[in-house]
Amino acid sequence: MPAQRTIVGPGAVAAVPAEAEAITGVPAAQLRAVLVVGPGFDTRSWAERMVAALRPLPIRRYVHPGPATPDGVLRLARLLRGSRPEIVLAVGGGTVLDTVKAAVALQPYPDLDERDVARGCDDPELRRRWPVDAPARPAVVAVPSTPGTGAEATPFATLWDTAAGRKLSLAGPELLPRTVILDPDLLVGLDRTVLACAVLDTICQGAEAAWSIRSTPASTAFGLSALGAAAGVLDRLVAGRLDDAGREALLLAGHHSGRAIAEAPTSSCHAISYPLTLWLGLAHGHACGVSLPRLLRHNADVTTADCADPRGVRHVRAVVDRIAMALGADVAASGPDGAGGPDGAGAARAAAAAARVERLLVGAGLTPLEGLPVDAHDLAVEALNYPRCHDNPRRLDVPVLSRLLGTPLGLEESCS
User: Where does the Fe-containing alcohol dehydrogenase-like C-terminal domain lie (predicted)?
Assistant: First the structure.
């Protein structure tokens, strides 16, 4: 699998034609290219500039209406199989990027239906037995126009089986985009709520890739890097004072969070988010972020009796403490509750980090968990149906998670 190339900076989209030539060895004017965008593309202030920058490429445009479903993916895969482009340029948020990645991965397989795609997500080995009848896959150039999802950096795609009411994941090395363009100019015009949802996704991905029982040194390093970069601009984002440097920081934070979860999958916050998105239509980052404050404090209080990570309590507490510090928690060693010592200080920092995430939710006008019309027990049952919920470093079961999700922020330590 070729190494992924990343191009970062204002105006970086201008590099796309040259990058397409470098990937294919074909002059830009002779390439077949498909541009996949979301329905709001033409309303963005930079859309005309982007089209002009891409002009050397003879481009066919395809508008994906969203969400990323098996049906939508198959529709795009059939178009790609018929037009046989060498390059597919995905410009948009995680929905567009995941749809393109999945469609390119499924392009070689004719006559698939939605059930085949769902079964292929559940059983990757099944895909090896599908008959192949298509040319080589095109190279994907991913251009995120929202920060946070990290979809441009991951070898998997999130799909939504709305009929069955479940989230799917299509995974494989063929889903990793060949080139990533991180252009902060593309974030201009996004409102505070959209940006906050994206940042919450970044923060959750960074935290979960670090605290997961499947975490690696690489997932932890990328996760903490994502958290630190995002934390550095939170106050400016809430105040509506995000500048070019802040937009670039958010893009890089999201990219690092994607690289983190490419090493170690997300865990509890994301498992909780899936039913919230399916039931209430919550934006993904919002759905992830509402449970993070509770899980930060919960995991900081891990004990020998309920530790799920084979590396032990000290490891989990140390990682959660690093997460809290990366989020900007600055609490004296004794902690505000007078709990003295390393453990007390770690719990205090986790509480401070949790409070900062909660302030981000409120400041961006996003409803916190206690304001959502959902039953905590039902949410716990559904979240625990996703195996990744059990990658949380402190064991979760229905009674524990029900109490955790139904307890007001600040009282989570009673959920042991």
Answer: 198-330
DSSP secondary structure of 255-298 = HHHHHHHHHS---HHHHHHHHHHHHH---HHHHHHTTHHHHHHH
- Given the DSSP bridges, would you call strands 156-161 and 166-171 parallel, antiparallel or unpaired? antiparallel
Tell me if the pTM is above 0.85: yes
Taking only the tens place, the pLDDT of each residue in 208-227 is 999 999 999 999 999 999 99
Tokens, residue 115? 């059930």
Taking 3-state DSSP, the helix, strand and coil percentages for the chain, each rounded to the nearest 5, stand at 55, 10, 35
Q: Are strands 139-144 and 87-92 parallel, antiparallel or unpaired?
A: parallel
Please report the domains of the chain, with CATH numbers, ordered by start residue. 5-187 (3.40.50.1970), 192-414 (1.20.1090.10)
Q: What is the pLDDT of residues 102-152, one digit of tens each?
A: 999 999 998 899 999 998 988 888 888 888 876 689 999 999 999 989 999
**In angstroms, rounded to a whole number, what is the distance separating the alpha carbons of residues 120 and 73?**
13
